[in-house]
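Below is how a single chain appears once it has passed through the pipeline. First comes the sequence as given, then the structure the pipeline wrote out for it. We keep one example in the README because the format questions we get most often are answered faster by looking than by reading.
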Amino acid sequence: MARVSTPQKTEFEKTPGWLDWYAGPSTPRFRLPAGAVDAHCHVFGPGEEFPFAPERKYTPCDASKEQLYALRDHLGFARNVIVQATCHGADNSAMVDAIQSSGGKARGVATVRPGVAQDELQRLHDAGVRGVRFNFVKRLVDVLPMDGLQKVADQIGPLGWHIVI
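Resulting structure:
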Protein backbone atom coordinates (compact mmCIF):
# COMPACT_ATOMS: atom_id res chain seq x y z
CA MET A 1 0.00 0.00 0.00
CA ALA A 2 1.37 3.40 -0.96
CA ARG A 3 1.85 5.99 1.74
CA VAL A 4 0.23 9.35 1.31
CA SER A 5 2.49 12.21 2.25
CA THR A 6 0.96 15.03 4.25
CA PRO A 7 2.39 18.42 3.30
CA GLN A 8 4.18 20.16 6.16
CA LYS A 9 3.21 23.71 7.08
CA THR A 10 5.81 26.28 6.22
CA GLU A 11 6.31 29.29 8.43
CA PHE A 12 4.02 31.55 6.40
CA GLU A 13 1.62 29.20 4.64
CA LYS A 14 -1.91 30.56 4.77
CA THR A 15 -4.10 28.11 6.66
CA PRO A 16 -7.86 27.65 6.06
CA GLY A 17 -9.81 30.62 7.34
CA TRP A 18 -6.79 32.93 7.11
CA LEU A 19 -7.67 36.53 7.79
CA ASP A 20 -5.23 39.05 6.40
CA TRP A 21 -4.36 42.06 8.53
CA TYR A 22 -6.84 44.84 7.87
CA ALA A 23 -5.00 48.15 8.04
CA GLY A 24 -8.02 50.47 7.80
CA PRO A 25 -10.47 49.90 10.65
CA SER A 26 -13.36 52.34 10.85
CA THR A 27 -13.44 55.05 13.48
CA PRO A 28 -15.51 53.94 16.48
CA ARG A 29 -18.95 55.57 16.74
CA PHE A 30 -18.54 56.14 20.45
CA ARG A 31 -15.75 57.13 22.81
CA LEU A 32 -14.54 54.55 25.30
CA PRO A 33 -14.44 55.55 28.97
CA ALA A 34 -11.14 57.05 30.12
CA GLY A 35 -8.72 54.31 31.12
CA ALA A 36 -10.50 51.56 29.13
CA VAL A 37 -8.44 48.38 28.74
CA ASP A 38 -8.45 45.93 25.83
CA ALA A 39 -8.32 42.88 28.10
CA HIS A 40 -7.52 40.20 25.50
CA CYS A 41 -5.40 40.86 22.44
CA HIS A 42 -2.45 39.19 20.71
CA VAL A 43 0.71 39.89 18.79
CA PHE A 44 1.69 37.44 16.04
CA GLY A 45 5.35 37.38 15.08
CA PRO A 46 6.78 38.91 13.05
CA GLY A 47 7.67 35.36 12.08
CA GLU A 48 11.26 36.16 11.13
CA GLU A 49 11.95 37.48 14.63
CA PHE A 50 9.53 35.37 16.68
CA PRO A 51 9.00 32.03 14.90
CA PHE A 52 5.70 30.23 15.26
CA ALA A 53 5.64 26.96 17.24
CA PRO A 54 6.00 23.73 15.24
CA GLU A 55 2.94 22.30 17.05
CA ARG A 56 0.68 25.24 16.18
CA LYS A 57 -2.77 24.60 14.73
CA TYR A 58 -2.77 27.70 12.52
CA THR A 59 -0.34 30.17 11.02
CA PRO A 60 -1.53 33.76 11.27
CA CYS A 61 -0.36 36.73 9.29
CA ASP A 62 2.11 38.86 11.19
CA ALA A 63 0.47 41.35 13.53
CA SER A 64 3.26 43.32 15.16
CA LYS A 65 3.37 45.21 18.42
CA GLU A 66 3.43 48.46 16.45
CA GLN A 67 0.22 47.47 14.67
CA LEU A 68 -1.35 46.53 18.00
CA TYR A 69 -0.41 49.87 19.56
CA ALA A 70 -1.76 51.76 16.55
CA LEU A 71 -5.05 49.84 16.76
CA ARG A 72 -5.23 50.41 20.54
CA ASP A 73 -4.81 54.14 20.04
CA HIS A 74 -7.21 54.27 17.08
CA LEU A 75 -9.95 52.51 19.06
CA GLY A 76 -9.37 54.67 22.13
CA PHE A 77 -8.07 52.11 24.61
CA ALA A 78 -5.60 53.31 27.24
CA ARG A 79 -3.96 49.95 27.91
CA ASN A 80 -3.71 46.34 26.71
CA VAL A 81 -3.56 42.90 28.24
CA ILE A 82 -1.55 40.94 25.68
CA VAL A 83 -2.39 37.24 25.86
CA GLN A 84 0.10 34.67 24.58
CA ALA A 85 -1.14 33.37 21.22
CA THR A 86 -1.35 29.58 20.85
CA CYS A 87 0.53 29.76 17.54
CA HIS A 88 3.63 30.75 19.53
CA GLY A 89 3.29 27.85 21.99
CA ALA A 90 5.09 28.40 25.29
CA ASP A 91 7.70 30.71 23.77
CA ASN A 92 6.48 33.99 25.25
CA SER A 93 9.15 36.12 23.53
CA ALA A 94 6.84 38.06 21.18
CA MET A 95 4.36 38.84 23.96
CA VAL A 96 7.10 39.85 26.42
CA ASP A 97 8.77 42.03 23.78
CA ALA A 98 5.46 43.81 23.17
CA ILE A 99 4.88 44.40 26.89
CA GLN A 100 8.38 45.71 27.46
CA SER A 101 8.13 48.19 24.60
CA SER A 102 4.61 49.40 25.47
CA GLY A 103 5.73 52.33 27.59
CA GLY A 104 3.96 50.83 30.61
CA LYS A 105 0.63 50.53 28.76
CA ALA A 106 0.49 46.71 28.67
CA ARG A 107 0.56 43.65 30.88
CA GLY A 108 0.71 40.06 29.73
CA VAL A 109 -0.74 36.60 30.14
CA ALA A 110 1.79 33.82 29.44
CA THR A 111 1.58 30.19 28.40
CA VAL A 112 3.84 27.94 30.46
CA ARG A 113 4.37 24.20 30.58
CA PRO A 114 4.08 22.08 33.73
CA GLY A 115 7.48 22.00 35.37
CA VAL A 116 8.32 25.58 34.42
CA ALA A 117 11.17 26.85 36.58
CA GLN A 118 10.34 29.38 39.27
CA ASP A 119 13.08 31.68 37.99
CA GLU A 120 11.38 31.70 34.56
CA LEU A 121 8.10 32.72 36.21
CA GLN A 122 9.95 35.49 38.06
CA ARG A 123 11.53 36.66 34.78
CA LEU A 124 8.06 36.82 33.20
CA HIS A 125 6.73 38.67 36.26
CA ASP A 126 9.55 41.21 36.08
CA ALA A 127 8.67 41.74 32.39
CA GLY A 128 5.04 42.57 33.21
CA VAL A 129 3.24 39.22 33.02
CA ARG A 130 0.41 38.88 35.54
CA GLY A 131 -1.32 35.66 34.54
CA VAL A 132 -1.12 32.30 32.77
CA ARG A 133 -3.34 30.86 30.08
CA PHE A 134 -4.62 27.29 30.02
CA ASN A 135 -6.24 26.58 26.69
CA PHE A 136 -8.98 23.94 26.53
CA VAL A 137 -10.07 24.76 22.97
CA LYS A 138 -9.34 21.51 21.12
CA ARG A 139 -9.07 23.18 17.72
CA LEU A 140 -6.16 25.26 19.08
CA VAL A 141 -4.21 22.70 21.13
CA ASP A 142 -3.51 18.96 21.01
CA VAL A 143 -2.88 18.42 24.72
CA LEU A 144 -5.47 19.59 27.23
CA PRO A 145 -3.78 21.06 30.32
CA MET A 146 -5.74 19.36 33.15
CA ASP A 147 -2.78 17.48 34.59
CA GLY A 148 -0.48 20.47 34.97
CA LEU A 149 -2.98 23.13 36.00
CA GLN A 150 -2.79 22.65 39.79
CA LYS A 151 1.01 22.52 39.86
CA VAL A 152 1.32 25.73 37.86
CA ALA A 153 -1.42 27.36 39.97
CA ASP A 154 0.60 26.56 43.10
CA GLN A 155 3.72 28.06 41.50
CA ILE A 156 2.09 31.33 40.43
CA GLY A 157 0.13 31.88 43.65
CA PRO A 158 2.99 33.70 45.41
CA LEU A 159 3.28 36.04 42.41
CA GLY A 160 -0.37 37.08 42.71
CA TRP A 161 -1.15 36.06 39.14
CA HIS A 162 -4.51 35.00 37.77
CA ILE A 163 -5.39 32.05 35.52
CA VAL A 164 -7.18 32.40 32.19
CA ILE A 165 -9.12 29.27 31.22
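The radius of gyration is 17 Å.

See the next section for the split statistics.
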